Amino acid sequence: MRQDGNQAFLRDVLPRALRADITVYDLGGGSRPCVDRELKDRLGLRLVGLDVSGEELAAAPVGTYDQTIVADLCTFTGTAAADSVICQATLEHVPDTVGAIRGLATCVRPGGAVYLFAPCRNAAFARINLILPEGLKRFLLFRLFPEKATGHDGFKAFYDHCTPGQIEAIARRNGLEIEERRLFWTSSYFFIFTPAYLLWRAWQGLSYMVLGKDAAESFVYVLRKSHAVALDSKALRVSGRAAQLTGSEA
Prior knowledge:
Keywords: Methyltransferase, Transferase. This is Methyltransferase domain-containing protein. This protein has 250 residues and is α/β, with parallel strands linked by helices. The chain has a single domain (5-125, 158-249), classed as Rossmann fold, CATH 3.40.50.150. Helix content is 42%, strand content 20%. It has 9 helices and 7 strands, in the order αβαβαββαβαααβαβα. The protein has a 7-stranded mixed beta sheet with strand order 3-2-1-4-5-7-6, sandwiched between helices.
């Protein structure tokens, strides 16, 4: 109830994704990669950054990314080259989460894992975000929270299929098994005004009675790619090759 989901992700989950001498994909990290140059070099990581904005990738600290890919995650198809895939506070900004999870699943090798953090569509701040015009939303955000004006906030959010239940269903359809799920029930947006805080907590309690886990403020997942995906793909290739040979003999 009192843990911030993003901070818990950075503190408790992200370090498990970073092991020596592996390939890591940072999806949507843009100008703020998931690791800094010093840590990357110390662990011997190969860090690949993917973002829809080439300008964001170019603004990252020099030498952090070993490779950059300018692409829309919703339509991107990877080569299963990553040992770990990091997707931190990105899914809420894509208009097609089904396509995005399919894309990130194609980036990770069988046996590898996706480490995911996202805010929930049913959180009160997310609902307000969806209602307010973009200009007004950014004005209020940066006026009430000046520190966010120089950060990575203010991008358009869609929250498409962005609840724990929906994420789990899409992940399983793409060969990603739920290894760990953590739900968080707090965020900082309403702490500045006591009446708003009380209304938010009341809204959250009522939402939980109706929606259960899908009423969370944010969530963290570790999704492991099944080895069965590779076996199925190999079987399809063998089957297709056999059909070609049979056709040639005929």
